[in-house]
Amino acid sequence: PEQPDLDWWNPEVREEFERILRFWFDRGVAGFRIDVANALVKDRELRDNPPATENDDPWSRRRGFTPLYNANRPEVHEIYREWRALADGYDPPRVLVGEAWVWDFARWAAFWGTEADELNMAFNFQLLDAPFEADALREVVERTQAALPPGAWPALTGSNHDVRRFTTRWCHGNEALARCALLMLFTLRGTPFLYYGDELALADGHVPPDRVLDCAEPSRDPGRTPMPWTAEGGWTDPWLPLTDTSRNVEEERADTASTLHFTRDLIALRRGRPELQAGDYEELPAPSGAWAWRRGENVTIALNLGRVAVDIAGIEGTIELATERDREDEKVTGHLHLAPAEGAVVVT
């Protein structure tokens, strides 16, 4: 079996997709995630892509070709302008979120359109693909903010069905670092998207060779194992094996010190703080291994992703939420001390 592609040069295909969008929008669907949003339109002549070079992004080098003719064609923007006009015609407007694996920041930012007339959001995969280190993450955010047109808003995530779970890939199973990742996603400028299990600090599962279903190499199945609802798993015959249920929803729900409760408190904090919903991002000075930023006027976020404790100067206020929960309500006067794999939100 193969996944068919469509001829987006055919106007009847475009008309049919607009009919499909209206069908679901009329029924109240809030919006769509558009898979491989940068690759709807192919080169009209179906020319072969050129070989990848050292100047290409890591994904192109791994695949061996530059996606010149099978993706990132300029005509795709015509489609999104039409879809955005259709989505904006509803009350409330519907939302279009793009999965666009585009590594050039300017080309990626073009999917918002020249006048915010294309996608509402596109996943910031440059952040997802960066190592979980302060300098690397900070650079991605700086370049993202510089590339986005006025008013544009990125979609933020650390895990998905293609790259596996961040607790394994970024944090190597360290729950304290996983909480730092959650804190980052919910306090940067953008909309956080959680992959199922992120809220538990769930790591990749074990899939023996005889149970692998995914055709990719290496297999993505370890990041697609079932959600452990209970200590017994909560499944009768899952599509992939569930061999470790030590981190499960039922027990984390009952434990107020769990990462699940931490995630819920992060969501509540974001909802209650307008600065975290719409405030500007401003980077702050921080020692090596640490990263600090301000949202709006009154909310400061700091993470220590290094291996030694740090003191971050110039921070005043009260810790409203911390990865180490017993530090909440602590007063900060002039500097914030953070152990390795620790983060905090300080408000004034």
Describe the structure.
It is a single chain. The chain is of the alpha/beta class. It has a single domain, classed as TIM Barrel (Alpha-Beta Barrel). The chain is 29% helix and 16% strand. It is built from 11 helices and 11 strands. The chain is globular, with a radius of gyration of 22 Å. The mean pLDDT is 96.
Summarize the structure.
By secondary structure, this protein is α/β, with parallel strands linked by helices.
The first-level CATH class name: Alpha Beta
Number of extended strands: 11
Give helix and strand order, one letter per element, not per position: HEHHEHEHHEHHEHHHEEEEEE
User: What CATH architecture do you see?
Assistant: Alpha-Beta Barrel
What overall geometry do the principal axes of the alpha carbons give?
A: globular
Task: Give me the number of helical elements.
Answer: 11
Mean pLDDT: 96
User: Helicity, in percent?
Assistant: 25-40%
Question: CATH H-level name... which superfamily?
Answer: Glycosidases
CATH topology: TIM Barrel
Question: How is the main sheet built?
Answer: 6 strands, antiparallel
Q: Into how many domains do the coordinates divide?
A: 1
- How far apart the termini lie comes to 58 Å
SS strand fraction? 15-25%
Strand order of the largest sheet: 6-7-8-11-9-10
Unreliable sequence segments: none
Structural class: alpha/beta
